[in-house]
Amino acid sequence: MLFYDGEAERYLQLCRDNAVHTLATSYIFEMRAETLKKRLLWVNYVGLAVPILVGTLVLSFDIDSWNTIKIIAGAILVPQILINLFSLVGGWVNDLPYANTSAAANDSLSMRFDSLATAPPESPVELKQAIEKLAIEDKARRDQDTAQNIKGTEKRMGMRYALRKFGRSCAGCDLIPKSMKPTDCDVCGNFKYSDR
To answer: Do 33 and 104 form a contact (C-beta atoms < 8 A)?
Structure first.
């Protein structure tokens, strides 16, 4: 390559760094999608369970048991309504498709940044153009993702995942993560993680 003053290495390092950051973001939204799927599964399950339970009870018992059936159904229905209301206000149904889309888009960006860093084009002009093109796409995705209120704990968890995946050392603790078990590091730790 015909770059001067380490320019090529700066571009390649930018690609490697962006591969880590976009993979971290992908992981954040992948975990969000997994959580939202589980929550919505339970909302849907309870939403079907109450009518089925009431219908079964009505068909199974005589009319004298109707007050008992209403009490049981009401006891189940109140929490169901509260959970459904919470899911609607929380935007779970809308957040799930966004999380899936963002996870896939960021994963794709990460793979393309990594490919560019490991097998750059021969021409300096082509490398610069490829990086600029990816940078525009990355900025558009970051702008959208920023509006999703990513928490600091999520960022640290995503960073730990990406550093582990790429075998890179953390800028905070200078260690290469070997597992997803959090440490006290303020860059790649200090989050809650349950084994999945």
So the answer is: no
Answer yes or no: is 131 within a domain: yes
Give the span between the Cα atoms of 84 and 80, in whole angstroms. Answer: 6
108 lies in which domain range?
7-150
Number of domains in the chain: 1
Q: Which is more confidently placed, 17 or 47?
A: 17
Q: Quick check: 116 and 16 in contact, CB under 8 A?
A: no
3-state secondary structure (DSSP) of residue 163: helix
Contact 181, 42 (CB under 8 A): no
Residue 13 contacts residue 89 (beta carbons within 8 Å): no
- The structure's pTM equals 0.84
Contact between residue 116 and residue 130 where contact means Cβ atoms under 8 Å apart: yes
- Asked if the structure places residue 128 within a domain, the reply is yes
The dihedral through the CA atoms of 188, 191, 195, 196 has a sign that is negative
159 in a domain, yes or no?
A: no
- What is the spatial distance between Cα 21 and Cα 155, in angstroms, rounded to a whole number? 9
Express each pLDDT in 89-111 by its tens digit.
888 889 999 999 999 999 999 99
